[in-house]
Amino acid sequence: MSVEKALDFAKKNDLKLLDLKFTDLLGIWHHFTIPMQELSQSTLDHGLGFDGSSIHGFQEINESDMLVIPDVSTFISDPFHAHTLSMVCDIKDPIKKEFYSRDPRYVAKKAEKYLEDSKIAEKAFFGPEAEFFIFDSVRFGQNEYSGYYYLDSHEGIWNSGNGVGENGIVANLGHKPRHKGGYFPVPPVDSLQEIRSEMILAMMSAGIEIEAHHHEVATGGQCEIDMRFDTLVKMADKVMLYKYIVKNMAKKHGKTATFMPKPLFNDNGSGMHVHQSLWSNGTNLFYGNGYAGLSETALHYLGGILKHADALIALVAPTTNSFKRLVPGFEAPVNLVYSKRNRSAAIRIPAYHESPKTRRIEFRCPDPSCNPYLAFSAMLMAGLDGVKKKIEPPDPVDDNLYALPKDKLKQVRSVPGSLEAALAALKKDHAFLLEGNVFTQDLIDEWIKIKEEKDIQQVALRPHPWEFHMYYDV
Length: 474
Hints:
Layout: H1 3-12, E1 17-23, E2 29-35, H2 41-46, E3 48-51, E4 65-77, E5 84-93, E6 98-99, H3 104-118, E7 123-135, E8 137-142, E9 147-152, H4 193-205, E10 210-215, E11 222-227, E12 230-231, H5 232-252, E13 256-258, E14 272-280, E15 283-284, H6 296-307, H7 309-316, H8 322-325, E16 335-340, E17 345-349, E18 361-363, H9 372-389, H10 406-409, H11 419-428, H12 431-434, H13 441-461, H14 465-471
Parallel strand pairs: 1-5, 16-17
Antiparallel strand pairs: 1-2, 3-4, 4-5, 5-6, 7-11, 7-12, 7-13, 7-14, 8-9, 10-11, 14-15, 14-18, 17-18
Helix pairs in contact: 3-5, 3-9, 4-5, 5-9, 6-9, 7-9, 7-11, 11-13
C-alpha cells in the first residue's frame, strides 16, 4: 500500500495527526504522535528516531538510538482520538541498517518467512480467544510496611448484600452472576452487553472481523470477544488493537479493563485459547482421515507443541500471575494431552462442524498477558518442528481428566507449575526457536533475564498478605 493512499484517507477524513505505535519485548504498545504533513515516502524509507533505552527489552543506554518504520498497510482512524491516523511500526537499528532482532513484530515476520521457505505450507492461521475483566474500580499498592489490592464490580456476587446499587442510590437491583455462573446469561445479569457491543463496533470499524461477544464464566465482569482468524502478523497486530480498544472503551464508560490472567481468587481466570491451522493453495492441511478428522500433518504439528510445551509456557503464559490460573484440578487445561471436544486437555480439536475448512487445533494454555507476536511465532515454530521431525503425539485422552484416578492422572504430563520452572525449560529447550534465525539467542537471553529479575525476584522479595494469615502467630 502506498503512502498516497494513507494521505488521501487522512484528507478525506480530516485527520491531521499521525500516531505511530510499536510493541516492546513484553508485548506493551508504545506511541508518539507527529503532524500529518510529516508523513512522506521518506518517512517510510528512513523512519523516525526514538530512545530505545527507555523501552522494555530494547537497547542499553550506550546503543539507544533506534528507528520506527511505519507500516502504511496498517493505517486506521484511531477510534479514541479525533483527527488522528494510526499506524503500526517496525523497529530498525540506525547503525546496522537492519530490522531489530528484539522487535517482536520482526520475529513474527521471520516466522512467516520460515514457514514459506519450509514448503510445508504457505500460511498459518491463528484465532485467539482473549478473555478479560471489566471492573468498576481497582486499587493496589505495596511498600516496605503495607501491601494490598482491592477490586470491585457492581455485578460481582460479593456485592449482593451491598445497599448501594449501580447508580449510587440506596438500592440493590440484584441480577449478579454467581461465582462460576457468568457464562452466557442475558441482561440484566449480563450488565456489560452494551459496552462490549460498542467495543466490537469500534473493532469492526478499525478492520477487525468479529465473530461473537459474550459474558464469560466468572462473576465480576469477565468477558470475551472472538475475532475471526487471520495470518500470524496480521492477527498479532489485531490482538494489540483489540486490547487497546477494550481498555479505552472501558475507560470511556468510567470502568477499567484488565487482561491480567488471574485477578480474582476462587473464580475463573482469563485465558487466550489459540486456534491454529496450516494452509496451502486454499487447502486446509490439517484436515484428514485421522483422529478427530485430523491429517498426519496436524497430528505431527500438535506433537511438536506438546513436546516443546514446557518451554512454550514461558512465552505464552509468561507472568507469575499466569500460574495462579494454571493450577491442576481447577478450570485451566494443564494436562499436556489432546482430545476432541474435551476442554480439560491442553489441546482440543473443536467438533462444531465437519467442514474441512474448519478443522484446526486449539492450544488452551496461553493467556492474554503474552506478547502475541512472540507467542504465535513460538507456537508455529514448535508445530513446524513437529511436522519436520514427524513427532508422533501420545494417544488422545477423551476421558474427563479431572475425574481420572490419581494413579492414572500421575501418568499424564502437566505444564510447569511456576514461571521459574517454565523459564528453566526454555533455557534447555529453545533450539527449535532459533531455526531460520526466527528467534535469536540474544532475544531469548534477554527475555529470560527480564522475567527472572523483573517478575520472579520482585514477587519473591515481597511478603504476601496471606502469609500474615498463615504465619503471623508462629
